[in-house]
Amino acid sequence: MSKPVILTVEDDIDILHLLTYNLDAAGFEVVPAQDGYEALALARRRMPQLIILDLMLPGLDGLEVCKELKRNESTRKIPVLMLTARGEEVDRIVGLELGADDYVVKPFSPRELILRVRAILKRYMAEEAPATVWRLEGLSVDFQAHRVLVDDQEITLTATEFRLLGELIRNQGKVQSRDHLLDKVWGYQFEGYARTVDTHVRRLRQKLGPYAEFIETLRGVGYRFRD
To answer: Which of 13, 45, 120, 225 has its CA 20 to 30 A from that of 37?
Structure first.
């Protein structure tokens, strides 16, 4: 059985070696890249199962790389895990809004990074749900086909956004805490990562357009899909 291919994009050679060593030991095939242009070329040629993307890159930075990946039909469904420095909170939020699935802050724990990688791959490789179509007013979700229609127009969601919407719908009328959503949708809980949930909810609301208000915010508690 072939190993999952991970494209690692990092210009710091020491960090690149650290990533390569730990990912290889965890059973992944690593394809390294040291700048944004090389990353885009390798992504199109190798079609990796996941991309680990540093934001601070020479030439074409990580945000531009992420934007280009999500714009291209052949690469837009490849999950992206961002590597960021502690002072780049705005860039992390922008990256998530561009469609990145998650982020890890430098300096990072290799064990945590591997956990994140496996959680993302598990989400993308999960078995198909039973044939179920859910509807409320002009919003329709086909859980088997992974399709969402807003007033009969299909919208594009990342795998994480689709799982988040599904988790809220399956618990319609019930309040879901940020920690619960991190556990169910992302597959982990780490202190300080609740902003990940907020950013994805905001992006999901934007895509739902006139039905954004279906996702209600309960301040200090979490989110609820309107009953």
So the answer is: 120
Instruction: In whole angstroms, give the CA distance from residue 72 to residue 80.
Output: 14
Q: Output the pTM of the full model.
A: 0.66
Domains and CATH numbers, the chain: 5-124 (3.40.50.2300), 133-225 (1.10.10.10)
By DSSP bridging, strand 133-136 and strand 139-142 are antiparallel
- With a CB cutoff of 8 Å and minimum separation 6, the contacts of 193 are 182, 186
C-alpha–C-alpha distance, residues 222 and 194, integer Å: 10
In terms of phi and psi (left: phi > 0; alpha: psi -120 to 50; beta: otherwise), the region of 64 is alpha
pLDDT one-digit tens code per residue, 191-212: 556 778 888 899 899 999 999 9
Q: What is the pLDDT of residues 4-60, one digit of tens each?
A: 999 999 999 999 999 999 999 999 999 999 999 999 999 999 999 999 999 889 889
Say how many CA atoms lie within 13 Å of 177 toward its Cβ. 7
